[in-house]
Amino acid sequence: MKYMNGGQVQESFFLHDWRKFACHASTLYCGRMTSSPQDAALSLVQQYYAAFNAADAEGMLTLLTDDVRHDINEGETQLSRESFRAFLARMDAHYREQAADLVVMASADGTRAAAEFIIHGEYLKTDAGLPEAAGQRYVLPVGAFFEIRHGENVPRIARVTNYYNLSDWTRQVGG
């Protein structure tokens, strides 16, 4: 299993207009895939979090399949890119978040990937069924799991499953 650690790989992995291509010596060459499905999966998940940190919802959505499965932490499963778009809009209205200390791992065949990171967030507006928002800040470890499809030489994320400790988040925001 390979991994890319945001802290350790920072010097050799950088994003330059990531929507066009991500430059990494073992993954891409001149914007074209030149190596394994595993490297493609690693790059895809890195691009996903680069878009997340840039608050670029459309950039995230372009990395997903049309029928993406989204397993929401302690919530429902949603199917489709449009459902994911609505989820991102809700999240943007209520939270401001950045993923830090990102580590990405992928299976040898590139069909599965996992990410571990620390989310640094601010609770902006009260979300239904949750404590009142007042700009509280929180820091949480998160685990995310991905299914990846490699079609037409363009990998896309077909499943996103996120896990974090909701009780810890609730404690941090004063609920």
Characterization of the model:
- The structure is a single chain.
- This protein is of the alpha+beta class.
- The chain has one domain: Nuclear Transport Factor 2, Chain: A (Roll).
- The protein has helices spanning 6-9, 37-53, 57-61, 81-94, 166-172, and strands at 2-5, 14-15, 22-23, 28-29, 32-33, 64-71, 77-79, 95-106, 112-123, 136-151, 154-163.
- The protein has a seven-stranded mixed beta sheet with strand order 1-8-9-10-11-6-7, sandwiched between helices.
- The chain is globular and about 45 Å long.
Uncertain segments? 7-34
The coarse overall form would be: globular
**Tally of individual domains:** 1
Q: So what's the CATH class?
A: Alpha Beta
| CATH T-level topology | Nuclear Transport Factor 2, Chain: A
Structural class: alpha+beta
Can you give keywords for this protein?
27% helix, two-stranded antiparallel ribbon, 7-stranded mixed sheet, alpha+beta, Nuclear Transport Factor 2, Chain: A, 175 residues, single chain, 42% strand
Nutshell version of this structure?
This protein has 175 residues and is α+β, with helices and mostly antiparallel strands. The chain has helices at residues 6-9, 37-53, 57-61, 81-94, 166-172, and strands at 2-5, 14-15, 22-23, 28-29, 32-33, 64-71, 77-79, 95-106, 112-123, 136-151, 154-163.
Describe the SSE topology.
Layout: E1 2-5, H1 6-9, E2 14-15, E3 22-23, E4 28-29, E5 32-33, H2 37-53, H3 57-61, E6 64-71, E7 77-79, H4 81-94, E8 95-106, E9 112-123, E10 136-151, E11 154-163, H5 166-172
Parallel strand pairs: 6-11
Antiparallel strand pairs: 1-8, 2-3, 4-5, 6-7, 8-9, 9-10, 10-11
